């Protein structure tokens, strides 16, 4: 019986190590040898095989006793040990796949949140600029900058339309309809006003929108 016990221990050590090597070859994608991963896989495989007698006893199996002097039962025991030694590979593979999938999903969510944050920042900056006093704008009240009489009738009309509507960010069709101006003229006028820092444009979730700057509001007030 002692010799049979020693044989079973040797089988579990050998089969566990073999299962660990199989797991290493399956899990490792590197060409170079990863000694640390190989040791962990072999150790895990050996420890797994030593659970086989306990599991068999829980199910009331007499395979260990019957395997003494019976090659068929001994081979069955070897097959069970090898199966148990290889099982951690499936667990580790599933865990790694789940971790990678969750990491990818988290990365995509972070990228989306950063994109939405940049959009929100672009939309809020004109509001912040409007409510923040700028020393450079004082020059306008001192006679420098764009004077009201420098704007033609169309530019003045478009600037007033930007500043007097109930929306802060205006669409091109809405501006054309409210100011009774065609799109080509409107685009040229908006480009001129943007060049003069009287108007600005942002690209939001709903497309390109136009807004009046604080300097444009001061110019409207000065011409009133």
Automatic annotation (TrEMBL):
<feature type="transmembrane region" description="Helical">
    <location>
        <begin position="37"/>
        <end position="59"/>
    </location>
</feature>
<feature type="transmembrane region" description="Helical">
    <location>
        <begin position="6"/>
        <end position="25"/>
    </location>
</feature>
<keyword id="KW-1133">Transmembrane helix</keyword>
<feature type="domain" description="YEATS-Like-Associating Three TM">
    <location>
        <begin position="5"/>
        <end position="111"/>
    </location>
</feature>
<dbReference type="InterPro" id="IPR046890">
    <property type="entry name" value="YLATT"/>
</dbReference>
<protein>
    <recommendedName>
        <fullName>YEATS-Like-Associating Three TM domain-containing protein</fullName>
    </recommendedName>
</protein>
<feature type="transmembrane region" description="Helical">
    <location>
        <begin position="74"/>
        <end position="92"/>
    </location>
</feature>
<keyword id="KW-0812">Transmembrane</keyword>
<dbReference type="Pfam" id="PF20303">
    <property type="entry name" value="YLATT"/>
</dbReference>
<keyword id="KW-0472">Membrane</keyword>
């Amino acid at each position: 019986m002692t010799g049979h016990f020693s044989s079973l221990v040797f089988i579990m050590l050998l089969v566990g190590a073999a299962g660990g090597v199989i797991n290493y070859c399956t899990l490792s994608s590197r060409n170079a040898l990863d000694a640390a991963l190989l040791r962990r896989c072999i150790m895990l495989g050996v420890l797994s095989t030593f659970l086989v007698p306990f599991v068999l006893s829980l199910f009331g199996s007499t395979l260990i006793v019957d395997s003494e002097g019976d090659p068929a039962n001994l081979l069955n025991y070897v097959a069970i040990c090898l199966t148990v030694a290889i099982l951690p590979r499936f667990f580790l593979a599933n865990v790694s796949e789940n971790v990678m999938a969750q990491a990818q999903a988290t990365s995509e969510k972070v990228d989306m949140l950063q994109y939405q944050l940049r959009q929100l920042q672009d939309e809020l900056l004109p509001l912040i600029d409007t409510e923040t006093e700028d020393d450079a704008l004082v020059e306008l009240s001192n006679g420098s900058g764009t004077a009201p009489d420098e704007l033609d009738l169309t530019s003045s009309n478009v600037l007033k339309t930007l500043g007097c509507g109930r929306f802060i960010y205006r669409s091109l069709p809405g501006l054309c309809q409210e100011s009774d101006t065609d799109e080509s003229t409107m685009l040229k006028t908006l480009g001129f006003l943007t060049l003069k820092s009287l108007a600005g444009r942002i690209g939001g979730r709903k497309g390109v929108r136009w807004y009046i700057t604080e300097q444009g509001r001061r110019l409207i007030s000065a011409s009133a």
